């Protein structure tokens, strides 16, 4: 986890800007619990980041099927699940990724995927 922040006094209350980079989605609950009463928390995600660590194995399977363009019924048949169960998994993934459509999920996966033509060692140089 990486953190950084700055404080700015504008108006009556001091404002603190904090940037946290982590794969642990549970960090948000800890931060919310630590805030003083009356504090406001605004959360945003960095575009193109897919928090794989926050997803269950089944949700990662569902993501793969979404990338293939399968419907809920097709995913259900492929994974031997009810399409209602698939719908619930898709909704949970949308919440985790802060996405409003299936297409947005697939687009974020594509943005976050490494380019097959580049090697990770080359990308750092």
Automatic annotation (TrEMBL):
Listed GO biological process terms: regulation of DNA-templated transcription
Keywords: DNA-binding, Transcription, Transcription regulation
Pfam families documented for this protein: GerE
Domain HTH luxR-type, chain residue ranges per copy: 48-113
MF-aspect GO terms: DNA binding
SUPFAM superfamilies xref list: C-terminal effector domain of the bipartite response regulators (SSF46894)
Keyword Transcription carried by entry: yes
PANTHER family, sorted: DNA-BINDING TRANSCRIPTIONAL ACTIVATOR DEVR_DOSR (PTHR44688)
Protein name in UniProt: HTH luxR-type domain-containing protein
Native source species: Paracoccus limosus
